[in-house]
Specification:
Strand order of the largest sheet: 3-2-1-4-5
CATH topology: Nucleotidyltransferase, domain 5
Number of domains: 1
Distance between the termini: 25 Å
Largest sheet: 5 strands, mixed
CATH class: Alpha Beta
Order of helices and strands: EEEHEHEHHHH
Oligomer: single chain
Structural class: alpha/beta
CATH superfamily: Ribonuclease H-like superfamily/Ribonuclease H
Number of strands: 5
Helix content: 40-55%
Strand content: 15-25%
Shape: globular
C-alpha cells in the first residue's frame, strides 16, 4: 500500500510517499512543491500546485492521500483563507485521480508520532528520521510533516478500533447526508 502525505502550503507544500508492506513502513519519496514568488498571481500559484500534486499522484498512484487539516491563528485570518485555496486544489487533484482523502489535525499527527501534540518541528523531523530509518533528518520540515501525516493515516486506518468501525472518523458523512 502506498500513502501520500501532504503538508499543505501556498508557497511550499511538503509531500511524502510511504510504502507499507507486511506492516513495514518505508520511504518512497519526499519533497516539496514550490509555487513561485508571492508576487505571482494567486491563480498561477494554485495552478502550479495542482500540476505538482497531479504529477506525484500519477507517478505513485497512492491508495490514499493524507492531508493535514487547516489551522490558523485568530490573529492571521488571511492565512487560513490562502491555505484553504491550497487545500482545495490538493483535494481537487486527488478527486481527479480518484484518490481518497483523509484529513488529520496537526496535534493528532504530532501526538501519534511523538506522544506530544505540541511537538516542535525538530522533534517531528527526528521522529521521522527514526521511524523511517533515514541517515539524515528530512528537510525542510514540510517534508517531515507530510511523512508524519502519511504514517499517522496508516496507523489510524489499521488500528483495531478503526478496523472494527470500518473507516476513520474523518471520512464519515455528516448526519442526514447519505453517501
Amino acid at each position: 500500500m502506498k500513502i501520500l502525505g501532504i503538508d499543505p502550503g501556498l508557497n511550499t507544500t511538503g509531500y511524502g510517499v510511504i510504502q507499507v508492506s507486511n506492516r513495514d513502513v518505508s520511504l518512497c519519496e519526499g519533497g516539496v512543491v514550490r509555487t513561485g514568488s508571492t508576487s505571482d498571481p494567486l491563480e498561477t500559484r494554485l495552478s502550479r500546485l495542482y500540476d505538482g500534486i497531479m504529477d506525484i499522484l500519477e507517478e505513485f498512484n497512492p491508495e490514499a492521500l493524507a492531508l493535514e487539516e487547516l489551522y490558523s491563528h485568530y490573529q492571521h485570518p488571511s492565512t487560513a483563507i490562502l491555505m484553504g485555496h491550497a487545500r482545495g486544489v490538493i483535494c481537487l487533484a486527488a478527486s481527479k485521480n480518484e484518490t481518497p482523502v483523509c484529513s488529520y489535525a496537526a496535534t493528532k499527527v504530532k501526538s501519534c508520532l511523538t506522544g506530544n501534540g505540541r511537538a516542535s518541528k525538530e522533534q517531528m523531523q527526528r521522529a521521522m528520521q527514526a521511524r523511517l530509518k533515514l541517515k539524515e533528518i528530512p528537510t525542510p520540515h514540510d517534508v517531515a510533516d507530510a511523512l508524519a501525516v502519511a504514517i499517522c493515516h496508516y496507523w489510524t486506518v489499521t488500528s483495531p478500533v478503526m478496523v472494527a468501525v470500518g473507516e476513520p472518523p474523518t471520512q464519515r458523512s455528516p448526519k442526514g447526508v447519505s453517501g
